[in-house]
Structure formats: C-alpha cells, structure tokens
Write a structure and sequence with these properties.
The protein is of the alpha+beta class. It is built from six helices and eight strands; from the N terminus they run E-E-H-H-H-E-E-E-H-E-H-E-E-H. The chain has an eight-stranded mixed beta sheet with strand order 1-2-3-4-5-6-8-7, with helices on both faces. The protein is globular, with a radius of gyration of 16 Å. It is an enzyme of class 2 (transferase).
C-alpha cells in the first residue's frame, strides 16, 4: 500500500480493477464534469489501468492512486496527482463511484494524499481546478482546506458547451494551521 487511512487503502491500480474502473467511469453522472466521455470500454479501461499501474508517484507527471475500501475490499475511485517538474508543487483530481459518494470516502482519500504531499514529500503548494457546476467537488476541496483562488468564466469547451472553471490552492503553511486546529479538537 502506498497510503492508508482508517477506512481506505490508496494503492497502485491492478488488473482486477478494470471492470469496476470501467463501470464508474462509464456512469454519465460521474463523467459529466470530467474530460472523458462515457461509456468507457473494458478495452480502454484495461489500457488506462495498465498505464496507471506503471506510473511512478515520485516522478513528475500524473500518478493515479486507486482508492480501495478496506471493509469491502473493492475499488471505489481514484485520486490523481500531477507532480510538477520542480517537485515542490502538485495538482490533484479525484473521482468516486456513485455508490460510495456521500460517505466521506473521497474527503478521506484526498486528505491522505494532501497530507502525504505536504508532510512526507515536502510540497509547497497543491492546487486543483473543477467545473464550477460540480458542487460536490467544490465542497470537498473547501472541506479539506483549499481556498478558492479564481474563476475563469467560459474557459473550457467540453462536451459541446463552454464551462466555467474554479481554481483552488492550498499552501503548506495553510495546511499546517488547519491540521493543528483539527488536532486540537
């Protein structure tokens, strides 16, 4: 396991993840605010899972963590980290299967990844962006401590429409203050 929380393993993708990965990425509600188009074929999912499994989390570029629920022993989603060339900042994104949403799993996974980026890997800044209509992602980012840094109106042309993008950021010293506050209560 790369990371562990009370309820989750954040690990490399494995071949047995292909079916579940294809299933949740094929859900139109999950794909709505993402760059891919549903459905995702098993062939495409197998290729992506293979690429993810071969990734290196310590190298610049994207690395995708598989979110596994400990109790159920199943894939529930993924968290992607795009490590900058300078190895001092990263961007993240996340996706969770619909049946596991609303139970705090995505927040727990994102918090664990951000903690690792700041506390073990020494990042200075972690950022994220999302479609402004994606209220659940906005709430998750703010719950973890990210601050809204900007709005880019009609910035992205995706799936036949212009969408507004929200920009979020979190600095290591902000993270330190928020975790100290969390630990005090």
């Amino acid at each position: 396991m790369l990371l562990e929380t009370p309820r989750l393993y954040l690990r490399r993708f494995r071949p047995e993840d292909v079916r579940m990965f294809a299933a949740y990425r094929s859900d139109p509600a999950v794909a709505r605010y993402q760059s891919w188009t549903a459905p995702v074929s098993l062939e495409s999912a197998a290729s992506l899972v293979g690429d993810f499994a071969a990734g290196e989390p310590e190298r610049p570029g994207w690395f995708q963590y598989a979110i596994e629920l400990k109790a159920e022993g199943c894939l529930a989603g993924d968290v992607g980290v795009n490590l900058h060339e300078n190895r001092m900042q990263a961007e993240l994104g996340f996706t969770l299967a619909p049946q596991w949403q609303g139970q705090g799993y995505a927040t727990e996974a994102v918090r664990a990844v951000v903690r690792d980026l700041f506390e073990r890997r020494g990042m200075h800044r972690v950022s994220a962006e999302c479609d402004a209509r994606n209220v659940n992602s906005v709430r998750l980012l703010e719950r973890v401590g990210f601050l809204r840094e900007g709005l880019r109106p009609q910035h992205t042309w995706i799936k036949g429409e212009w969408t507004d993008d929200l920009l979020y950021g979190l600095l290591v010293d902000m993270w330190g203050r928020s975790t100290a506050h969390d630990n005090a209560h």
